[in-house]
Amino acid sequence: MASWSDLTNDVLEHITSFLDLSDHYRLGAVCKNWRSVSKWRRYPPAPQLPWLVLEEEKETRKRKFYSLSDAKHYSIEIPELHGRYLCGSSHGWLFAVDIKINGTLLNPFTRECYELPPFPAFCAETDLTTLVEKVPSDYTGWPRKVTFEEMQTRIVFKAILSHDPKER
């Protein structure tokens, strides 16, 4: 009798086209071969409700997601998102900005990642560390000293994708 882990990749790929995100996530936990197949996306995903992206857990540094369809929280280790501000999502992709205001598109399930071109001159040439360090530590007037996180949210407030980057 053959083992489930011996299913061919094309059969597994076809199966993934019928799975919602939570089942797709679980499929990758079965075995090494299934995990690698779960990261491919040759077929469009099954229609489903989106997952909500929540805050990063401080102790574990895992990103929390909430599935509307099965009303469950999922904690997923995504090192590419550590210290990044999320300012948009679309078509399964997250738009994240780091401390130097570098933009990245990341698919949290396939881990596919695209570094985006630099923002206009102010953002591309400015490290937020420099901006925050220029404000004296004892300064109490207006404008007040702001944190890195506040600078990230003020420089890049929202991002919207016009189409899925995988569809050309």
UniProtKB/TrEMBL annotation:
<dbReference type="InterPro" id="IPR005174">
    <property type="entry name" value="KIB1-4_b-propeller"/>
</dbReference>
<feature type="domain" description="KIB1-4 beta-propeller">
    <location>
        <begin position="65"/>
        <end position="166"/>
    </location>
</feature>
<dbReference type="InterPro" id="IPR036047">
    <property type="entry name" value="F-box-like_dom_sf"/>
</dbReference>
<dbReference type="InterPro" id="IPR001810">
    <property type="entry name" value="F-box_dom"/>
</dbReference>
<dbReference type="Pfam" id="PF03478">
    <property type="entry name" value="Beta-prop_KIB1-4"/>
</dbReference>
<protein>
    <submittedName>
        <fullName>F-box family protein</fullName>
    </submittedName>
</protein>
<dbReference type="Pfam" id="PF00646">
    <property type="entry name" value="F-box"/>
</dbReference>
<feature type="domain" description="F-box">
    <location>
        <begin position="4"/>
        <end position="41"/>
    </location>
</feature>
